[in-house]
Amino acid sequence: VQDEVSNLSTPPQRTGTEFGVAVPAMSDSAANPLAGKPPVAPPTISVPLLWGAVLSQVPTPELEAALKVAEDYQIDGYVLVNTTNTRTDLQTPVAELEQIGRGGLSGAPLRARMLERVHFVAKALQGKKPIIAVGGIFDADSAYDCIASGASLLQLYTGLVYRGPGVAADINRNLAARFKREGIKSINELIGKAVL
């Protein structure tokens, strides 16, 4: 099965366009791969899965609008969250951040916002669509929090960079140990536990 990811949180990071203008217009935007297409029938195994990716800084009203459009077009699931271009709550001095320049920020600074967004979308959709959590997942505890907030899949980037490819096995091993301690027999028992 092939997957396609459509960025529901237009505009791109580099443009600085306000989300209030870009996201509500996505249903008829030329940049939107779904624009002008009628809602489609539910996918079969031969149809690529279409995931909607959302940036962390999309304000809640725009996220609600994006979800409505995505649901109208029967998006198969959501990737929460993509990178952010905000630089709040970082320890790096402002002068150094200005020298580095704009661009997507990933990793630990996204964790709190990612959990908030996963929780929000899982609750809004009542757990009916899969969510891929991404942003600041480095260990079993952060993975556990993502799953309890409504994620059914996890995606790692920065964690792989800083902890190496063994991070996935480490997360699995420690999640299994925690599940055993808490009497959780299946990951399905944990998905959305903090939400639904």
How would you sum up this structure, described in words?
This protein is an alpha/beta fold. The longest helix is centred in the last third of the chain and has 16 residues, at 167-182. Mean pLDDT is 78; it is low at 10-34 and 37-47. Helix 4 packs parallel to helix 5 and helix 5 crosses helix 7. Helix 2 links the parallel strand 2 (49-54) and strand 3. It has helices spanning 19-22, 60-72, 94-100, 111-124, 140-149, 158-163, 167-182, 187-190; strands at 3-7, 49-54, 77-80, 131-134, 153-155. A 5-stranded parallel sheet has the order 1-2-3-4-5. It contains 8 helices and 5 strands, in the order βαβαβααβαβααα. It is globular and about 50 Å long. The two termini are 29 Å apart.
